[in-house]
Amino acid sequence: MRKIASIFIMGLLWTANTNAAPLTFNTALPISEGEYIVREQLVVSQSGDDPSGANRDRTELSAVSTLVYGVTPDFALFGTVPYTDIDTNTTDAQGIGNTKIFGRYTLYQNDFQGGTFRVAPFAGVKIPTNQDNTGTDSWDSFGGVVATYGTIHWEVDGQISYQANTEADSFEAGDITRADVSLQYRLFPITLSTDTHSFINGVLEVNLIHKDKNKTDGIDNPNSGGTTLFLVPGLQYAAERYILEAGIQIPVIQDLNGMALENDYIFRTGFRLNF
Fold first, then answer.
1. Alpha-carbon distance 191 to 245, whole Å?
2. pTM of the model
């Protein structure tokens, strides 16, 4: 009986932990065929550390909506649309931002009792659906690979990605290269039972993001681009069909070019729902 109870608990834990995922990037965990996931995030990005001494300030508030559909057990489609409000010292822009559509395919999987290891490449396109200068007007492509190792107690996700930006209206944003790692660890309940159906996970992530210089009429802007390292502590409440989450991206290293405006923080909160 004790062995049966242990297997039952592991099954419940794995069901809930398959819903766990990073706060700031994607996961390689599977989406069942015909299943949908809706994710809503509120993202507040504050930049006010101005090396130029001009007291520049920029606040960006975005409501980011993502819909995911499991086409097959190995292939999933993602669509993301933000509604963004950008406020600076001199301007205020708001409206729909740029849409991202991409596919993710499970290239490798190794499932074992109480856990799994998955590797999934992904690729997609950024569509210029922005309104009122809430994004660039270019069609851009991006891709990468994400890997996930998950057990009933913890999950580790890692991702490498690249976005190639193109020119539109004489402006070309710098290409973006990033590497991300996320650890989600079960904090509660400490003692497991057959009544366990939800969890509180502590989250710790690292984002290393490099952006090339922007270009106008083919000329580099010396006060744009650079490298930032974010440390991201957070919390998740994970149940069998939904997640509530919150975290804050704290820049611990900012090696930016010229007088580029530095970031103070990025706060994220939201939920995910499987159906």
1. 22
2. 0.91
